[in-house]
Design brief:
Shape: globular
Order of helices and strands: HEHEHEHEHEHEHEHEHH
CATH superfamily: Aldolase class I
Bound molecules: the ligand Cc1ncc(COP(=O)(O)OP(=O)(O)O)c(N)n1, 4-methyl-5-hydroxyethylthiazole phosphate, magnesium ion
CATH class: Alpha Beta
Strand order of the largest sheet: 1-2-3-4-5-6-7-8
Length: about 220
């Protein structure tokens, strides 16, 4: 763990994830609008059919990183550890099909490390290997990730919190401002979304709605 858990929890409240293939508009405009709406953390996830590679990917990453920097929003890179180190991103997010968390921790030093987990065993390993937060999902059905695991609802999150596992947790998969409430009530520190913001007519309003609902639920639930 490299980041203070309380600081990490605040960053996870509204965690926006996006790559060029998720947007119907210019990705830089979408990110700028999402930041205006109140997102607390950003992940660059350049993945899927038609995504950018090599220099083009790096160039978009740097543009989005600069936008985040202006507003003090930490910039996380999905999967691509080399890129994260090269451009000095604030952190990385990896899953179970990516490099092992302890190997990644050694490569990134004190940057933020997020790990996707789907079971108690994976959660315990991620914690032991130095994760700052864990991502769990898909909570609800999603059409954004073709190879997503089975929908898990709130079962695993509830199991984690009942076992008194305190690591910062963010939920992912099909989350919107309308269905975020049970997730926060079950102990998540925030929501991570792709389409709820990137595909919205107004990414700014969508981000603001998510921010308001997460904060309202937190005031009542925690
Ligand atoms: C916050 C967050 N949680 C989960 C994921 C999914 O990661 P992974 O399982 O490695 O799948 P890909 O995103 O790499 O397709 C995530 N990216 N972010
Ligand atoms: C990357 C990822 N991992 C599990 S579900 C998912 C996609 C989330 O996208 P959306 O918020 O559009 O459902
Ligand atoms: Mg991954």
């Amino acid at each position: 763990m490299a980041v203070n858990p309380q600081a990490m929890r605040s960053l996870l409240k509204v965690y926006f994830i996006m790559g060029s293939t998720n947007c119907c508009q210019n990705p830089e405009n979408v990110l700028q609008a999402a930041i205006k709406g109140g997102i607390t953390l950003f992940q660059f996830r350049e993945k899927g059919a038609g995504c950018l590679h090599g220099k083009e990917k790096e160039s978009l990453a740097k543009k989005l990183q600069a936008i985040c920097k202006q507003s003090n929003i930490p910039f996380i890179v999905n999967d691509d550890i080399e890129l994260a180190v090269k451009i000095n991103a604030d952190g990385v997010h990896i899953g179970q099909d990516d490099e092992a968390a302890d190997v990644v921790r050694r490569k990134i030093g004190s940057k933020i490390l997020g790990v996707s987990v789907h079971s108690m065993q994976e959660a315990e390993t991620a914690i032991r290997q130095g994760a700052d937060y864990i991502g769990i999902g898909p909570i609800y059905p999603t059409s954004t990730k073709a190879d997503a695991k089975a929908v898990q609802g709130l079962t695993f999150l509830t199991e984690l919190r009942s076992a008194d596992i305190q690591i910062p947790v963010v939920g992912i998969g099909g989350i919107t401002s309308e269905n975020a409430s049970p997730l926060i009530e079950a102990g998540a520190d925030g929501v991570s979304v792709i389409s709820a913001i990137s595909q919205a007519d107004s990414p700014e309003k969508a981000a603001a709605k998510l921010y308001d609902s997460v904060n309202r639920i937190m005031r009542n639930a925690h």
